[in-house]
Amino acid sequence: MGENFAATLGHRLPADAILTLPHRLSAAAAPALARTLTNLARAVNQELDAYLQAHPHQRSPEEGEWRVTEPRALLFRDAEGRATIDEPDSPWEKLTPDARWTLVEPIGSRPISVAEAWARKEDVEVQSPTLLTLHFGPHACALRGGIDLWATFLREPSQQVPMRRVCRELARIFDSPVALYLPSSWNPLSDLVVGGRTIEQIVAEFRKRHGPPAATIEAIYSERDYHREGGHNGRARPGKGYYIDTFADLPNDDAG
Q: What angle do helix axes 157-174 and 31-44 make, rounded to 10 degrees?
């Protein structure tokens, strides 16, 4: 299986603004974003493109409602039988080699604030009508969806350009100076994003971990390697790399 596409952007949103973000990202409040999402959906789904061409007055699915997944904390019982959100300690260090251990099952969950979720180093999900999921930490968000495969983003301008335009609109709304494109195995969500890093700090960490960014998106694909799989020789896969997009070379016309 190939790598999936991923992106990371910064944001300057306070915790209490995340739950109302779907309204701010709606087609009514952000028509340019809805238009770029529609163009991306048409680029990745030929059937949708054909349908919208045949029905020009039909509303695009990406003009539907954004939604946020309310953060929740699992509830467990403590030693005295009271419900608590603190998961019991792992029993591993208390076991002898021949002892059995029992998985502690949660008894339910309760809603928590976005600030509490971030304090617990958990992300908060905001989803577009059909294409994208944004995972928000305190100062950055990780994006997945839109384009499935990293290789497709690297080598197919017909999908790469609409994806970049979506990221540009999100960067404008979130006040992010750049978007970071990367293979899914390098996704910084689990440590840097939920760890409270800014986009500038994430870029600096990427330079330490992976070296300088690629000069162009296409350069990442040209640095591919070859491997053996299933007895077949010479099967190409995209090389590891990342790209920092300032959108300076991206045309303003998002009609295509």
A: 160
Return the structure tokens found at 64.
């539907």
The better pLDDT of the pair 218, 87 is held by: 218
CA distance 51 to 59: 11
Q: What average pLDDT does range 200-215 have in this prediction?
A: 95
Closest CA to 253 of 42, 55, 52, 39: 39
| SS3 assignment, position 189 | helix
Query: What single string gives the DSSP state of each residue in 49-65?
Result: HHHHHH-TTSPPGGGS-
Supply the DSSP symbol for 199.
Answer: H
Q: Are 6 and 243 in contact (CB under 8 A)?
A: no
- CB distance 4 to 142 below 8 Å: no
Task: Return the half-sphere exposure (C-beta side, CA atoms, 13 A cut-off) of residue 3.
Answer: 24
Distance separating the N- and C-terminal Cα atoms of the chain: 30
pLDDT average, residue stretch 221-245: 57
- Residue-wise pLDDT for 181-195, tens only, equals 999 999 988 899 999
pLDDT attached to residue 240: 77
Do 245 and 178 contact (CB within 8 A), yes or no?
Answer: yes
